[in-house]
Amino acid sequence: MSGHHHHHHHEAPKGKKLLWVTILNLSITIVQVIGGLISNSLSLLSDALHNLADSSAIFIAYVAEKVGRKKPTRSKTFGYKRIEILAALFNGIVLISVSVYLFFEAYERFQNPEPIKGKLMLIIASFGLLANLISVVILNRDKAKNLNIKAAYMHLLGDTLSSVAVIGGGFAIWILEIYWIDPVITVLVGIYIIYHTWGIIKETVDILMQSTPDNIDLNKLEMRIQEFSEIENIHHVHIWKLDDRQIHLEAHISLNENFTLKEITEIQQKIEECLYHEFGISHNTLQVGYNCCDGNVSFIKNE
Fold this sequence. Notes:
- By secondary structure, the chain is α+β, with helices and mostly antiparallel strands.
- It is built from 8 helices and 4 strands.
Protein backbone atom coordinates (compact mmCIF):
# COMPACT_ATOMS: atom_id res chain seq x y z
CA MET A 1 0.00 0.00 0.00
CA SER A 2 1.31 3.45 -0.83
CA GLY A 3 0.15 6.92 0.14
CA HIS A 4 0.95 10.50 -0.79
CA HIS A 5 0.77 13.42 1.59
CA HIS A 6 1.17 17.20 1.27
CA HIS A 7 1.37 20.08 3.72
CA HIS A 8 0.58 23.19 1.69
CA HIS A 9 2.22 26.62 2.04
CA HIS A 10 0.74 29.87 0.76
CA GLU A 11 2.96 32.83 0.02
CA ALA A 12 2.17 36.25 -1.35
CA PRO A 13 3.58 36.96 -4.82
CA LYS A 14 6.70 39.12 -4.85
CA GLY A 15 6.60 39.93 -8.58
CA LYS A 16 5.72 43.62 -8.32
CA LYS A 17 8.66 44.32 -6.03
CA LEU A 18 11.03 42.67 -8.52
CA LEU A 19 9.56 44.71 -11.39
CA TRP A 20 10.04 48.02 -9.51
CA VAL A 21 13.61 47.08 -8.64
CA THR A 22 14.29 46.21 -12.32
CA ILE A 23 13.09 49.64 -13.49
CA LEU A 24 15.09 51.41 -10.78
CA ASN A 25 18.24 49.44 -11.62
CA LEU A 26 17.92 50.09 -15.34
CA SER A 27 17.79 53.84 -14.68
CA ILE A 28 21.05 53.60 -12.65
CA THR A 29 22.72 51.66 -15.48
CA ILE A 30 21.91 54.29 -18.13
CA VAL A 31 23.14 57.17 -15.94
CA GLN A 32 26.33 55.29 -14.96
CA VAL A 33 27.25 54.27 -18.52
CA ILE A 34 26.98 57.88 -19.69
CA GLY A 35 28.81 59.15 -16.57
CA GLY A 36 31.52 56.47 -16.85
CA LEU A 37 32.25 57.30 -20.49
CA ILE A 38 32.39 61.07 -19.85
CA SER A 39 34.51 60.78 -16.67
CA ASN A 40 36.68 57.93 -18.10
CA SER A 41 36.18 55.87 -14.91
CA LEU A 42 36.53 52.09 -15.20
CA SER A 43 35.10 51.49 -11.71
CA LEU A 44 32.01 53.53 -12.65
CA LEU A 45 31.65 51.54 -15.89
CA SER A 46 32.16 48.32 -13.91
CA ASP A 47 29.43 49.49 -11.53
CA ALA A 48 27.21 50.18 -14.56
CA LEU A 49 27.98 46.74 -16.00
CA HIS A 50 27.09 45.10 -12.68
CA ASN A 51 23.87 47.10 -12.64
CA LEU A 52 23.07 46.02 -16.20
CA ALA A 53 23.69 42.37 -15.23
CA ASP A 54 21.50 42.98 -12.19
CA SER A 55 18.69 44.58 -14.19
CA SER A 56 18.54 41.58 -16.51
CA ALA A 57 18.98 39.17 -13.58
CA ILE A 58 16.20 40.76 -11.57
CA PHE A 59 13.94 40.87 -14.64
CA ILE A 60 14.62 37.14 -15.17
CA ALA A 61 13.82 36.63 -11.46
CA TYR A 62 10.54 38.52 -12.02
CA VAL A 63 9.60 36.38 -15.05
CA ALA A 64 10.65 33.17 -13.24
CA GLU A 65 8.53 34.09 -10.21
CA LYS A 66 5.50 34.59 -12.49
CA VAL A 67 6.09 31.32 -14.38
CA GLY A 68 6.81 29.45 -11.12
CA ARG A 69 3.25 30.11 -9.92
CA LYS A 70 1.73 28.26 -12.89
CA LYS A 71 -0.24 25.14 -11.95
CA PRO A 72 1.18 21.65 -12.72
CA THR A 73 0.20 20.12 -16.06
CA ARG A 74 0.19 16.56 -17.46
CA SER A 75 3.64 17.10 -18.96
CA LYS A 76 4.99 19.12 -15.98
CA THR A 77 3.51 17.22 -13.03
CA PHE A 78 5.80 18.95 -10.52
CA GLY A 79 4.76 22.34 -11.89
CA TYR A 80 7.19 25.12 -12.84
CA LYS A 81 8.86 25.82 -9.47
CA ARG A 82 12.33 24.90 -10.73
CA ILE A 83 12.25 27.77 -13.25
CA GLU A 84 13.22 29.98 -10.29
CA ILE A 85 16.16 27.70 -9.43
CA LEU A 86 17.37 27.78 -13.06
CA ALA A 87 17.04 31.58 -13.03
CA ALA A 88 19.08 31.85 -9.81
CA LEU A 89 21.79 29.61 -11.34
CA PHE A 90 21.88 31.66 -14.56
CA ASN A 91 22.07 34.92 -12.58
CA GLY A 92 24.98 33.63 -10.51
CA ILE A 93 26.96 32.50 -13.57
CA VAL A 94 26.38 35.85 -15.34
CA LEU A 95 27.54 37.80 -12.28
CA ILE A 96 30.77 35.78 -11.91
CA SER A 97 31.45 36.09 -15.67
CA VAL A 98 31.03 39.90 -15.55
CA SER A 99 33.38 40.11 -12.55
CA VAL A 100 36.09 38.03 -14.31
CA TYR A 101 35.82 40.23 -17.44
CA LEU A 102 36.30 43.34 -15.29
CA PHE A 103 39.46 41.85 -13.73
CA PHE A 104 41.01 41.85 -17.22
CA GLU A 105 39.88 45.43 -17.80
CA ALA A 106 41.35 46.48 -14.44
CA TYR A 107 44.68 44.82 -15.33
CA GLU A 108 44.79 46.89 -18.55
CA ARG A 109 44.20 50.05 -16.49
CA PHE A 110 47.05 49.14 -14.12
CA GLN A 111 49.34 48.86 -17.13
CA ASN A 112 48.12 52.13 -18.68
CA PRO A 113 46.63 54.52 -16.10
CA GLU A 114 44.42 57.25 -17.58
CA PRO A 115 43.19 60.58 -16.11
CA ILE A 116 39.66 60.44 -14.62
CA LYS A 117 37.12 63.18 -13.79
CA GLY A 118 36.73 62.40 -10.08
CA LYS A 119 34.03 64.95 -9.28
CA LEU A 120 31.65 63.66 -11.97
CA MET A 121 32.45 60.08 -10.95
CA LEU A 122 31.54 60.98 -7.35
CA ILE A 123 28.17 62.55 -8.28
CA ILE A 124 27.11 59.63 -10.51
CA ALA A 125 28.19 57.01 -7.93
CA SER A 126 26.15 58.82 -5.23
CA PHE A 127 23.04 58.55 -7.42
CA GLY A 128 23.77 54.83 -7.89
CA LEU A 129 24.17 54.30 -4.15
CA LEU A 130 20.82 55.94 -3.37
CA ALA A 131 18.93 53.88 -5.98
CA ASN A 132 20.64 50.64 -4.84
CA LEU A 133 19.78 51.29 -1.19
CA ILE A 134 16.10 51.75 -2.11
CA SER A 135 16.17 48.44 -4.05
CA VAL A 136 17.85 46.57 -1.16
CA VAL A 137 15.18 47.83 1.27
CA ILE A 138 12.39 46.74 -1.15
CA LEU A 139 13.68 43.13 -1.36
CA ASN A 140 15.07 42.75 2.17
CA ARG A 141 12.00 41.09 3.72
CA ASP A 142 11.64 38.37 1.05
CA LYS A 143 15.29 37.34 0.62
CA ALA A 144 15.19 34.53 3.21
CA LYS A 145 12.07 32.92 1.72
CA ASN A 146 13.19 32.48 -1.87
CA LEU A 147 16.53 31.56 -3.48
CA ASN A 148 15.72 33.54 -6.62
CA ILE A 149 14.94 36.70 -4.60
CA LYS A 150 18.09 36.04 -2.58
CA ALA A 151 20.17 35.95 -5.80
CA ALA A 152 18.60 39.27 -6.90
CA TYR A 153 19.19 40.70 -3.41
CA MET A 154 22.87 39.63 -3.52
CA HIS A 155 23.23 41.39 -6.88
CA LEU A 156 21.90 44.60 -5.33
CA LEU A 157 23.96 44.31 -2.16
CA GLY A 158 27.07 43.91 -4.30
CA ASP A 159 26.10 47.00 -6.26
CA THR A 160 25.50 49.01 -3.07
CA LEU A 161 28.97 48.08 -1.82
CA SER A 162 30.36 48.82 -5.27
CA SER A 163 28.77 52.31 -5.23
CA VAL A 164 30.26 53.03 -1.78
CA ALA A 165 33.72 51.99 -3.07
CA VAL A 166 33.32 54.11 -6.23
CA ILE A 167 32.30 57.14 -4.11
CA GLY A 168 35.47 56.66 -2.02
CA GLY A 169 37.51 56.33 -5.20
CA GLY A 170 35.85 59.45 -6.63
CA PHE A 171 36.99 61.45 -3.59
CA ALA A 172 40.57 60.12 -3.84
CA ILE A 173 40.75 60.88 -7.58
CA TRP A 174 39.09 64.31 -7.33
CA ILE A 175 41.09 65.58 -4.31
CA LEU A 176 44.38 63.63 -4.53
CA GLU A 177 44.45 62.54 -8.22
CA ILE A 178 45.25 58.90 -7.27
CA TYR A 179 44.13 57.30 -10.55
CA TRP A 180 45.33 53.75 -9.78
CA ILE A 181 42.62 53.44 -7.10
CA ASP A 182 40.02 53.08 -9.89
CA PRO A 183 41.09 49.56 -11.05
CA VAL A 184 41.81 48.53 -7.42
CA ILE A 185 38.16 49.23 -6.50
CA THR A 186 37.02 47.31 -9.59
CA VAL A 187 38.98 44.20 -8.48
CA LEU A 188 37.86 44.40 -4.82
CA VAL A 189 34.18 44.67 -5.78
CA GLY A 190 34.57 41.73 -8.19
CA ILE A 191 36.14 39.51 -5.49
CA TYR A 192 33.34 40.38 -3.05
CA ILE A 193 30.63 39.53 -5.59
CA ILE A 194 32.23 36.20 -6.61
CA TYR A 195 32.62 35.18 -2.94
CA HIS A 196 28.92 35.75 -2.19
CA THR A 197 27.53 34.42 -5.47
CA TRP A 198 29.38 31.09 -5.20
CA GLY A 199 27.15 29.96 -2.30
CA ILE A 200 23.98 30.59 -4.34
CA ILE A 201 25.39 28.62 -7.32
CA LYS A 202 26.30 25.68 -5.04
CA GLU A 203 22.79 25.63 -3.53
CA THR A 204 21.06 25.71 -6.94
CA VAL A 205 23.28 22.87 -8.25
CA ASP A 206 22.48 20.78 -5.13
CA ILE A 207 18.75 21.26 -5.77
CA LEU A 208 19.04 20.39 -9.47
CA MET A 209 21.14 17.29 -8.60
CA GLN A 210 18.38 16.29 -6.12
CA SER A 211 20.91 16.13 -3.26
CA THR A 212 19.70 15.39 0.26
CA PRO A 213 19.11 18.83 1.88
CA ASP A 214 21.93 19.99 4.16
CA ASN A 215 19.61 20.35 7.17
CA ILE A 216 18.48 16.68 7.06
CA ASP A 217 20.54 13.83 8.55
CA LEU A 218 19.35 10.74 6.66
CA ASN A 219 20.78 8.38 9.28
CA LYS A 220 18.93 10.19 12.07
CA LEU A 221 15.68 10.24 10.06
CA GLU A 222 15.77 6.48 9.39
CA MET A 223 16.55 5.70 13.03
CA ARG A 224 13.66 7.96 14.15
CA ILE A 225 11.11 6.24 11.86
CA GLN A 226 12.27 2.80 13.04
CA GLU A 227 11.46 3.82 16.62
CA PHE A 228 7.77 3.24 15.79
CA SER A 229 6.86 -0.15 17.29
CA GLU A 230 4.98 -1.35 14.17
CA ILE A 231 7.91 -0.75 11.79
CA GLU A 232 10.48 -3.41 10.89
CA ASN A 233 12.58 -1.03 8.78
CA ILE A 234 12.57 1.87 6.32
CA HIS A 235 14.53 1.56 3.07
CA HIS A 236 14.85 2.92 -0.51
CA VAL A 237 14.73 6.41 1.00
CA HIS A 238 15.08 9.39 -1.36
CA ILE A 239 14.92 12.99 -0.11
CA TRP A 240 15.22 16.01 -2.37
CA LYS A 241 14.18 19.63 -2.74
CA LEU A 242 11.79 20.65 -5.52
CA ASP A 243 12.79 24.28 -5.04
CA ASP A 244 14.41 26.14 -2.14
CA ARG A 245 11.40 25.54 0.15
CA GLN A 246 9.61 22.26 -0.69
CA ILE A 247 11.24 19.06 0.60
CA HIS A 248 10.03 15.74 -0.85
CA LEU A 249 10.56 12.20 0.45
CA GLU A 250 9.79 8.78 -0.96
CA ALA A 251 10.46 5.52 0.89
CA HIS A 252 9.45 1.90 1.43
CA ILE A 253 8.23 0.98 4.92
CA SER A 254 8.37 -2.67 5.97
CA LEU A 255 5.96 -3.55 8.81
CA ASN A 256 6.61 -6.25 11.43
CA GLU A 257 3.01 -7.57 11.35
CA ASN A 258 0.28 -8.09 8.77
CA PHE A 259 -1.82 -5.11 9.88
CA THR A 260 -5.30 -4.28 8.56
CA LEU A 261 -5.77 -1.54 5.98
CA LYS A 262 -7.24 0.78 8.64
CA GLU A 263 -4.22 0.21 10.93
CA ILE A 264 -1.77 0.81 8.05
CA THR A 265 -3.49 4.14 7.29
CA GLU A 266 -3.08 5.19 10.94
CA ILE A 267 0.62 4.16 10.94
CA GLN A 268 1.19 6.19 7.76
CA GLN A 269 -0.42 9.26 9.29
CA LYS A 270 1.86 8.98 12.37
CA ILE A 271 4.95 8.75 10.13
CA GLU A 272 3.81 11.69 8.00
CA GLU A 273 3.21 13.92 11.03
CA CYS A 274 6.65 12.98 12.40
CA LEU A 275 8.33 13.78 9.04
CA TYR A 276 6.59 17.15 8.81
CA HIS A 277 7.01 18.38 12.39
CA GLU A 278 10.50 16.98 13.12
CA PHE A 279 12.18 17.20 9.70
CA GLY A 280 10.16 19.84 7.79
CA ILE A 281 9.25 17.39 5.00
CA SER A 282 5.99 18.64 3.49
CA HIS A 283 5.52 16.16 0.59
CA ASN A 284 5.99 12.42 1.03
CA THR A 285 5.16 9.21 -0.81
CA LEU A 286 5.32 6.09 1.39
CA GLN A 287 5.01 2.53 0.12
CA VAL A 288 4.00 0.38 3.09
CA GLY A 289 4.04 -3.42 3.10
CA TYR A 290 4.64 -6.61 5.11
CA ASN A 291 7.52 -8.98 4.22
CA CYS A 292 8.29 -6.84 1.18
CA CYS A 293 11.51 -5.90 -0.64
CA ASP A 294 14.05 -8.62 0.16
CA GLY A 295 17.59 -7.29 0.20
CA ASN A 296 16.40 -3.77 0.88
CA VAL A 297 18.81 -0.83 0.93
CA SER A 298 19.11 1.40 3.97
CA PHE A 299 21.51 4.29 4.57
CA ILE A 300 21.76 3.52 8.30
CA LYS A 301 25.39 3.01 9.24
CA ASN A 302 26.17 -0.39 10.76
CA GLU A 303 27.52 0.26 14.23
